[in-house]
Amino acid sequence: MRTDFWIMRPFNAVFFSSFAFFLLLLLAASVLLRKKSERTKETVLIAACIITVIGFVLYKFCLSRDGEFNIITAGMGGFNWWGELPLQLCNINMILLPIAVWKKSRPLCCFCFFLGPLGAMMALVMPGNGFDGYSLLLPRMLGYYGTHFMIVIEGLALVTFGIFRPRLRDLPRAILTALLIAFAAFCINLLLRRSGLHPKANYFFSVETEGNFLLELFYQWIPVPFLYLIPCTAILGVYMLAITVPLELLNRKKDKKE
What we know:
two-stranded antiparallel ribbon; globular
């Protein structure tokens, strides 16, 4: 078997093929559940989220046993369980989404719909060391890409399943929620760094930019940890408006017909 055939890099053939597979999975599930009850749709989505969480745990366990990964990330201290907590944007959404659906929480659904796919896509197109240019068949690559692709389609499923309809009035609360969670992650970073448990903790990229060109730019404007993330809210607001306005217009047409 040609191992180079399975090499995964952002925007290569394997990347687009994998993304297409998960989007088709979302489309098929949305069509099959179209006439099902809301409870059935919620049960399916919650079950998918639970499977993703289990996959995430198994993936991290495999990562802890991955000698090559430890060598690749030696400059960042190698594998450290304190550095692999589910505290990145996409991981937090992975945990909050089933809670949002179960509790029927509109603010959480809004947060997960907008931030879940966004955070996961950022991780997919800007993978960290050890996840770019390696065979998709490696356990760490299957875990990383499988988890993030699932988070993308689970967030989108909130709308395609008909569980949640974003409204313009939801956006300010979602942005505030994102800032509060980012600040909580920043505080955890400081605690982990000062305690020595993880000297380079950087959840939400709130302490160091790690070479991200956009965050580097913001850091030039506001050279203060965490505060340099604030300009991201402007980009987030534009992104949310671009999605919400067309959907709200479509929802209004549907409401008039009903």
